[in-house]
Amino acid sequence: MLPFKVVYHPRYDLDLGPHVFPSQKFKMVHDALLQEGLAEPGDFLMPEPAGDADILRVHTPAYMQKLQTDSLTLSERMKLEIPVSEATVQAFWLAAGGSILTARNALRDGFAANLSGGFHHAYPGHGEGFCMLHDVAIAIRALQAAEEIRTAMTVDTDVHHGNGTAAIFANDASVHTLSIHQENNYPMPKPPSDHDIGLEDGTRDAEYLDALEEGLLYSLKSFVPDLIFYVGGADPYREDQLGGLALTMEGLQKRDRLVFEHARRRGIPVASTMAGGYARRVADTVRIHVNTIVAARDVMLQESLK
Ligand SMILES: [Zn+2]
Asked: Is 247 helix (H, G, I), strand (E, B) or coil?
């Protein structure tokens, strides 16, 4: 029914219990897509966990081993801000495998979505801000290693700056990193992306969309990648508990469309990931992520953009 694949695994749930990160959102988005008739079972693909070789193209052997043997130090655990358990480790390995599968399907169909991923705060040697493994970097490296792509661009619209992404690809001319975020928010400091757009507190739809379009035009003028990884956080929403921008739900869907349309016009495939979302009502976060899939469908079916 959808003109692309959606990657999902029931064990994406980080099983965090009461926590500001609503990891039940992954299943809720999956269920909403089915219940509302937006997708059918055949639209979904189930990923395998990433292999250790995939992880090690991005992360250090010491960090990977600490995760696998549950031996992070107390300060490393505090930085990560989520518990290390069998369930969380498995969920992040699956999310990374899911982003690899999503990238491959995006190359085939022009678009694909992982109903997880976008863990843009993870660094090679440590995790932070709810991000244990950098699934997006792992996927880009996997496809580069298999010579399926040469270049990639990350378009990160999560309200928080993509610090792990910026650090991982800092000296890599094959990957262009674009981040549009709230300037006065975690993380501090922010290692420079190739293109950073730091927005003022309370930025609203019109101003945000202008800044995003300007940023896309600027980045895509100098760099036309083989693949765009979209990090479509739901947290620029005005009701978000960890964000200080003021986008409406409609504004967020226009944001998604803008990214997908610019990619589609240039024939660049897009792999979409979910990243953050901490709305007071989890249902709002879920709706924003569902709307991303709807925006992608509408853009894909818009023949004039081909
Ligand atoms: Zn965020």
From this structure: strand
What sign does the CA torsion over 16, 18, 160, 219 have?
positive
- Whole-number Å distance, alpha carbon 119 to ligand 1 midpoint, is 9
Full-model pTM: 0.97
CA of 304 from ligand 1 middle (Å) equals 33
Alpha carbon of 159 to ligand 1 centroid (Å): 5
Does a cis peptide bond (omega within 30 degrees of 0) precede residue 3? Answer: no
The band of 20, judged by pLDDT with boundaries at 50, 70 and 90, is: confident
CA of 121 to the centre of ligand 1 (A): 9
pLDDT in tens, 157-213: 999 999 999 999 999 999 999 999 999 999 999 999 999 999 999 999 999 999 999
What is the rounded radius of gyration, in angstroms, for the C-alpha atoms of the chain?
17
Query: Counting runs of H as helices and runs of E as strands, what totals does the chain give?
Result: 10, 8
Over residues 86-143, the pLDDT tens digits come to 999 999 999 999 999 999 999 999 999 999 999 999 999 999 999 999 999 999 999 9
151 CA distance to ligand 1 middle (Å): 25
What span, in angstroms and rounded, lies between the C-alpha atoms of 174 and 164? 16
**Could you tell me if 119 and 91 are in contact, meaning their C-beta atoms sit under 8 angstroms apart?**
no
Residue pair 133/139 in contact by the 8 Å Cβ criterion: no
